[in-house]
Fold this sequence. Notes:
Strand content: 5-15%
CATH superfamily of the largest domain: Type I PLP-dependent aspartate aminotransferase-like (Major domain)
Number of helices: 13
Radius of gyration: 25 Å
Shape: globular
Strand order of the largest sheet: 2-8-7-6-5-3-4
Low-confidence stretches: none
Structural class: alpha/beta
CATH topology of the largest domain: Aspartate Aminotransferase, domain 2
Number of strands: 15
Order of helices and strands: HHEHHHEHEHEHEHEEEEEHHEEHEEEH
Amino acid sequence: MSYIPHTEDDVKKMLDVIDIKTVNDLFKAVPPDIRLKKPLNLPEPLSEQEVQSELANISRKNATVEDYISFIGGGAYNHYIPSIVNHIILRSEFYTAYTPYQPEISQGTLQAIFEYQTLICQLTGMDIANASMYDGASAAAEAVLMAKRINSRQKCLISSAVHPEYRDTVRTYLANQRCVLTEIPYCTETGTTPLDAVEKYIDTDTSCVVIQYPNFFGSLENIESISDIVRKNNSLLVVVITEPISLGLLKPPGKLGADIVAGEGQAFGNPLNFGGPYLGFFATNEKYIRNMPGRLVGETVDRDGKRGYVLTLATREQHIRREKATSNICTNEGLCALTAAVYLAALGKTGLIEVAKLNLNKMQYLKEQLKGLKNIRPAFTAPTFNESVIDVNQDAESVIKSLLKKGILAGVPLKRFYSELKSHILVCTTEMNTKEQIDLLIEGLAKI
């Protein structure tokens, strides 16, 4: 192994310590029939300059939202990231920091996470938030497990208008939990979860009902009315959010009756980045704090009465409580959470509202322009935020491929998730889309 900088004498001394004659003896436990019997077929060694050139050539095969006009959403959103975000998070004391177990040397990181928790509480209208989770999908699944811990019921209802991949993740988490997961069909007219369907499916063994806000179709659910139904049954309401910019305009789910709010914080300053790393946020009411997964940063005072920050209630984690833990979370998305905190602090309340208004107004403009097209229309009637489903009255994937040739990423074809929506595309507009770009999309759709 020429790439290991040990002399033959070094290797012999190490083998003597463990009483083994050759390096190959270390691999006796590996069956001979599956061992590699010839050297790896590796390319000829390249210089650093040649490697960089080769990697650059490979990277050019990838396209990004900087190369195309993007109207893709569905849980991953193209938002503008202020330059101050990277300026802060790329500082070495933040960029290289791990979990702040030792408060005496981690006050800056702990305070940053505490501020993040505070911001999530303010946005969601909940009492407490944890120090982040892996992503929105796993946060939603953890919310269902938490509800089950609270009331020990064995049934979960989830709207079919919740992100399909989130539903898959919840289903995976519940596979061995003796919990029945039942989907509530969405209304084909409004694209929302029907109240009468919630009443039909809910029963005394229902632990929780999971609703997305805005939902996967971009439609705004009637959270308050659903909450009333759930509360009458003494169940818990879990609200999932994939586009948190919407909270700049929409009433916080905590004010609408949510018991647990879980979601994806990618839109808060984290780049698309081919799917990760992302940021799961999680908030709930104070009375459920002992059942909440993950860790929390708390504010306290030291012996001199000065304000300080510490990890608190960390005993919920599996590396401390093992099978009694409330979560398998053993780390957090600390850097992504810091990114969200910097982004929100940079925008402030007014800035977030302005960004949310831009997102809403651009989608309203797009929907208004669709009225001028003969065979293309919004698929659902419910109000939306920055996403909406359009029916192109032909195979959606062929339409998307046609527009791609014009440099337009038209959206997400829904046939992949809903077999009945073969001619439907989920379209998203953010502050990154100009009026001219929206007009180009409309023009492209008109010529199909």
